[in-house]
Amino acid sequence: MSMQKNFIIGLMLFALFLGAGNIIFPPKLGQLAGDELFIAMAGFLITGVGLPLIAILAIANAGGGLQTIAGRVHPAFGTIFTLVVYMAIGPFFGIPRTATVSYEIGIIPFLSESMASSSWPLALFTIGFFLITVALALNPAKLVDRIGKILTPVLFLVIGALAVKSILSPMGVIGQPQGDFTTHPFFRSFVDGYLTMDVIAALVFGIVVINTLKAEGVTESRAVMKAMIFAGVVAAVGLTLVYISLGFIGATSVDAIGLQANGGTVLALASKVLYGPYGSVILAITIISACLTTSIGLVSACAQYFEELFPRYSYRTFVLIFAGFSALIANVGLTELISISIPVLLMIYPLAIVLLLMSFIDKWFGRRPIVYILALLATAFVSIFDGLRGADINVTPITKLLAYLPFYDQKLGWLVPAIVGALIGVTLIPFSKKRV
């Protein structure tokens, strides 16, 4: 396959990643980080770019999707965990969020106050949004042409317009850090990177890239791995440039627009400052294009997975099911979706990270399930209570005990238990079953 084709597939992967969370979280991070932006952005880039790239490499290395990797723990765990991840990144949170962010940032600025406060404009928009998603997702073989060649250049153009203008005509000086960013900006932004959902998105999009390569005639395992690595690097570079640009816009916007409640508002107001009345149009194109590409990719990925899991039903059927269900969930609203998704992400993100990292080194311990199992059990014990705490569910006796763990205040208390669990698993290898 030609270098040009590889590059276009990389652009497609970048566009699939660049959705709602990728655009709304960096500007808010920039506002809160202030002159700690460099350190904060480093933490955000690890979870927002580095770990997704590792996930793509893990999928390429495994030669299959998430279930292939998770199945190394146990076949039942492989199926259950993969289902949880697909439902979280798909119809429960990820896909509906693409529509709600598009509406609240791209459409509401053009509505009257009375229309914006009504529920029917959101309902109409979500119907139209997911009808377009269905139309473009029904033929997964054409995702490269529709996303990589058309929608991605539009994204680069409009985001570039905002970024260049903010550099040439800054809205103000970079302000002072706020809240947690004054004491531990790196760890705070590291956890904020969870909200992009990109690590678990990479686990989902990996199979889309594999199937795209197969449709292009690339089937030999080494060639598939090489192409996926190239696509992952292209996507990672693109995401890095976008995050830094949006973070800088946020960091220089405080003097002009004040501290805002969320990144969507930051971008909406900053766009007007930078481009006047045309700013809202530029922002609307940016948001809707980005969210649409992610919606198409997620619906397609979920449909492909469920078609494999339940071959009795067609890919087309699952596209319609996931798009329809997501349209209903999207009408809950953006704020509610984010508040519900945070506890779930705090529970499953650490498990995904540990699983991915271990997949690179499992040859060292003979791919023995006992090592995976103990590492993931230790991780799950901490991450489940992190999720409960994120949902404001009182588990004081346990959290007091967990508070003694290193990095617990930074929501990284699972790190040391995961390492200890893996090491204990290694010592038990002589008494365990051989690799699965």
TrEMBL record:
It is a multi-pass membrane protein. The keyword Membrane applies. Coiled coil: none annotated. Belongs to the branched chain amino acid transporter family. The chain crosses the membrane at residues 7-25, 37-61, 73-93, 119-138, 150-174, 194-215, 227-249, 281-303, 315-334, 340-358, 370-391, 411-431. It is found in: Cell membrane. GO terms for biological process: isoleucine transport; L-leucine transport. It comes from the Bacteria. GO terms for cellular component: plasma membrane. InterPro entries: Brnchd-chn_aa_trnsp_Livcs. Component of the transport system for branched-chain amino acids. It comes from Sporosarcina limicola. This is Branched-chain amino acid transport system carrier protein. Keywords: Amino-acid transport, Cell membrane, Membrane, Transmembrane, Transmembrane helix, Transport. GO terms for molecular function: L-isoleucine transmembrane transporter activity; L-leucine transmembrane transporter activity; L-valine transmembrane transporter activity. Its main location: membrane. PANTHER family: BRANCHED-CHAIN AMINO ACID PERMEASE BRAB (PTHR30588:SF8), BRANCHED-CHAIN AMINO ACID TRANSPORT SYSTEM 2 CARRIER PROTEIN (PTHR30588).
